[in-house]
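hiii, so i know i said id send this last week but things got crazy w the move. better late than never?? heres the sequnce for the chain we talked about at the cafe, plus the structure i predicted for it. fair warning i was half asleep when i ran it
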Amino acid sequence: MQLVGTQVIPAYGGKGGFTVEFVGDGGEVVSVQIKNDRGQQLNRLNAVEKAREVMSRFATAKIRDEDTRPSVLRTARAAGDQGTMEEQLDEGLEGTFPASDPVSVTNTAIPKGSKH
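okay and structure toks below
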């Protein structure tokens, strides 16, 4: 596989970390999620290098049989995780702010004059 592209996707505007996607010439995609902590000083520029370090650690790790079994992750909604759902909502709102001017309310009724 030849690497043909790299994409860096910020989480929570980069405050929560980054997902780095390495794209291969056959359409393969390897994603590495890196969480940001106070001491790490992770940014869009060094996220790719950190992701490469993580991948190299995984490449040299011994794989156990239980690591190859597929796992199912439940969504925050299915798990009833209110905190995660709030975080996802905040992330969505941050990503769309400012989308446009606030909605204005207009009354279209035409008042009738009084008859004398």
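btw Residues 82-96 form the longest helix (15 residues). thought thatd interest u
miss u guys!!
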